[in-house]
Amino acid sequence: MTAIPGSIAFDEYGRPFIILRDQDKQKRLTGNDAIK
């Protein structure tokens, strides 16, 4: 995981998505925000 620029998190469905350090609050479109 150290080679990836950011962090890997899993949503409640078990799908992995990358959270960027600088855009973790602005571009979270893979989790629940993409569904809503």
UniProtKB/TrEMBL annotation:
This is Uncharacterized protein.
